[in-house]
Amino acid sequence: MAEGIGTLRELRAALDSRKTSSVEIVGGCLRRAEASQQSLRAFVGLRAEAALREAEASDARRERGEVRSPLDGLPIAIKDNMVQTGEPTHCASRILEGFVSPYTATAVAGLERAGVVVIGRTNMDEFAMGSSTEHSVEGPTRNPWDLDRTPGGSSGGSAAAVAARIVPAALGSDTGGSIRQPASFCGVVGMKPTYGRVSRWGLVAFASSLDQIGAFALTAADCAWVLEAIAGHDARDSTSIPEPAPAYSAALSGDLSGLRLGLPKEYFVSEGVDAGVLAVVREAVAGLERAGAKTLEVSLPYARYAIATYYSIANAEASSNLARFDGVRYGHRTAGAKGLTEMYCRTRSEGFGAEVKRRILLGTYFLSAGYYDAYYRKAQQVRTLLRGDFEQAFAGCDAIVTPTSPEVAFRLGEKTSDPLTMYLSDIYTVSANLAGIPALSTPCGFAHGLPVGLQILGPALDEATPLRIADAFQRITDHHTACPGGVS
Amino acid sequence: MARISRAEVERVASLARLSLSDEEGDRLVREFESFLGYIDTLQEIDTAGVVPTAHPISLPTPTRPDEPEVAMDPDSAVANAPEAVASAFLVPKVIDTEAEG
Amino acid sequence: MSASGGEFEVVIGLEVHAHLRTKSKLFSPAPILYGAEPNHSVHPVCLALPGVLPVLNEHAVELAIRAALAMNCEVHQRSIFARKNYFYPDLPKGYQISQYEEPLATGGWVDIPTQGAGGAASKKRVRLTRIHMEEDAGKSIHDDAIAGADATLVDLNRAGVPLIEIVSEPDIRSAEEATDYLRAIRSILRFTDVSDADMEKGHLRCDVNVSLRPHGSDEYGTRTELKNLNSFRFIEDAVRAEIERQSETLRAGGAVRQCTLAYDPQSGRTSVLRIKEDADDYRYFPDPDLIPMLLAPEQIERVRSEVPELAEQRAERFQHEWGLSEQDAIQLTASPAIANFFQAAADRHGAPQTVANWILRDVMQALKELEMALDDSPFSPEALAQLISMVDEGKTTVKSARGLIAELVESGGDPESLIAERGLAAVSDAGVLERAVAEVLAENPENVELFHSGEKKVVNFLMGQVMRKTQGKADPAAVREILARELGK
């Protein structure tokens, strides 16, 4: 593989000192993306021409001294579930074949405003339903650290593209861990902000009350830059927090003294977690303590119900959100159906993959007459209790740390035959979505030769604290600088 | 909690407008069994009087002023349609007893 | 067919859907354009494109609250938008955003006119179950010429238009009461400016639930639902036909099946659209794209203080303050357009009864002949007041003025300049009138004779002759005065 890309900050400095140009940077990204497709399949589409044109425009702005933001002229990749005018968005699904969006997602518009160049769309589990990026109509993405392993999911394409140093940053979406788990598996930084912090307008919905757009980058500081460009209030999203984007970069002081770190006792047990992973995470916590943080035990008694709660809610919402894919206004339509009902059933059966169908059916069941109270309503009530757990925990600490995933990247095909086992790998991540709180994953070492992620959760609206902790951790460690083999 | 029958899976599939092959149907009955068994752990929790959380954050009701935006160009509105005629979407007729709700 | 159920008591409840008068849709910023070409008033939200989200139209909320308060409902401080899930091509998201548990308003009532004991006019109170907000669906168009015989066209212009659904208790007992109730609802919606409530244009639609039970029974019979009735006439006919059908079934010892029916105006019969089944599983759940709607008590009270006067209150005021008869007052409040027109003209002119007479007689007739609605007429109440004043002041005659009404209703204009242009100014020149009187007296010696022999009434005949001679332009007061003087000589 070719020489990998640097961090956003390194690229910014190179642009400012005229060592390179945006066209050169973007051209390099496109070349690496093309070259890596055979082995990684991180992308489902590149916008080579448009990206180079935008890079040229950015170079011209810089010449005129009209740089729009620190990210102006820098490349990024977006997940295939965010729309951009004139570009396809397929959610790695056959049902959206041929769809070209007439409008742009607010988060993507934020990047455009900042002068960021979107080079292409990344692979994902179909409709973001999955934890391995194997459920894609385009075929699976592979983990740059071990091509026989998955990059995690559902934002596996974004994670792999950053880990392989194809792009310095990427957008992903996180409904139950879809940014953090692949960040952990691929050894990069990935953050899901507070629910409502980044507009969902233009993000193809999976589970509306849980979905949140976030960012992947090589460092916490870079991640902060990207979040600053995409966060903030949007009148087009009724669940958007009515506040401007916070200045995250300003919070990255490197200072952890006096910081209170909560360790959930339910998560720091040997049961259900790989021993190597747990050892690496404990060592990372010790590192944070040495840097001045104080640790204390907290309890999340309802955390053990998080997976059951999450899948009840997410599937119910998904079953309704995916009803619009009906072959009427866009996307795939079956050929030669006799009558409307046959058209619907065949279109949807052909258009959706097995995992999506499974979730639609479960969700439909949860909402159907006679089961609503037992499943959906019950899960919403447990969600209240789980939120209460976090509120209580954050009364005594500033952030909570856990492993991001109970394991390192698993092998392709290892879990596809047993959906429930796949669901259980989200054990540490879904709670943050249910509670709506910000959480990130940062590289904290290796187990079995593969990256391990440390998850840092903050109270609602406080993305700054997890970012500050991850940044401070990266100042005293070098796990985040490790490159997969073949990339320099 | 009740376990699921093949007929129940078929009923749900019909509500969701998905058709299942025999093999898919059988597999889904097994998967539903296993998944519902897992979800049943929620029934251990006493949630009497607990207000359901529909949203993780509390916000005042967002509204927008009653100001229309420019309508889409009709060509663009149907540009993605599998079939369209004279700026309208075209769909097969209802031929069974299927009717509007 | 009979309007009542004979040996059975008729039990009817209505679900009325009314479009709210907004410029944009309920959750989409698309403009609302009636009669536009297919998909000419849509936005990505109306098309349910991947990634779009709903944002609530604040004016729709205001109108819905206003309607609920005008119908005496309790407006709730918290209500929830829910998704009603079903597949249909005119429903782009695969679900309709409506309200289910926790609607905007509950309770309330609407009074309808009824015959009291001994045939005296009285009122009957129809209770309301609830009023909730929801979005309309698009339209499926069956046009074989364009679509071919096997296909249907889908137009989403209407998709997302804001509606309120007004659900009544089963308090209605006849087909006539059903239409009276609907008229009362329409009047309230119009007087509060909530909806144009035009059935022809689909602003107002209704589903009617009909069941029969033996007189004196406390239990409800099995009900059927008549769907998509779009005129008062059809509603009355359809309900009568359905009462008849159910009566026949029950009399024959059969059982009514719960079903949805359509009415065919051509045959005058109802036919089963579909049998209600378990398949109606709409899987309602709170829309996760919308947070619960919270209304501050002050907001509800502000809307309450701004609810405009309804027809009934206006009619009462016209009687009490202006001394109009009940019949005139009711006619003048048949629509807000008439009531507002009357009120403005009467305020300007100063003699409400005179203005009422002109409107009820001449303006109404002109509208009828021109097949126009007052709303569509350029005739201003100020112009009517001015015209009547010109008659009062003898500047023109009643006859000339009446002759101008149709023209004013059709094309508007300034009465004073019209009268001048057309030479309709009253003739009050003493010389002209004295000459005309002298001629008439000379031409009718026998009548002059009769007058002097005590037949004072012939003066009216002589008046008429003078008016004729002057083509109706003579100032009648002046003519009368000259006649009296000449005859008294």
Task: Tell me what you see in this structure.
The complex is a heterotrimer of chains A (488), B (101) and C (489). Chain A has a domain at 8-256 and 475-481: Alpha-Beta Complex (Amidase signature (AS) enzymes). In chain A, the strands form 2 sheets. In chain A, strands 4-6-5-10-11-9-7-8 form an 8-stranded mixed beta sheet, with helices on both faces. By secondary structure, chain A is α/β, with parallel strands linked by helices. The model of chain A has no long low-confidence stretch (mean pLDDT 96). Chain A has 15 helices and 11 strands. Helices cover 38% and strands 12% of the residues of chain A. With 101 residues, chain B is of the alpha+beta class. Chain B has a domain at 1-44: Histone, subunit A. Helices cover 32% and strands 9% of the residues of chain B. Chain B has helices at residues 6-15, 22-39, 74-77, and strands at residues 63-64, 84-85, 88-92. A two-stranded antiparallel ribbon of chain B has the order 2-3. Chain B is flat and about 55 Å long. The model of chain C has no long low-confidence stretch (mean pLDDT 91). The longest helix of chain C is centred in the middle third of the chain and has 20 residues, at 232-251. The radius of gyration of chain C is 30 Å and the shape is elongated. Chain C has 3 domains: 8-299, no CATH class; 309-421, no CATH class; 430-487, Arc Repressor Mutant, subunit A. In chain C, strands 1, 3, 7, 8, 9, 12, 13, 14, 15 and 16 form a 10-stranded mixed beta sheet that branches. In chain C, strands 6-5-17 form a 3-stranded antiparallel beta sheet, with no helix packed on it. Chain C has a two-stranded antiparallel ribbon with strand order 4-18. By secondary structure, chain C is α+β, with helices and mostly antiparallel strands. Classes of the chains: A alpha/beta (488), B alpha+beta (101), C alpha+beta (489). Chains in contact: A-B, A-C, B-C. Strand 1 of chain B pairs parallel with strand 2 (56-57) of chain C, so a sheet runs across the interface.
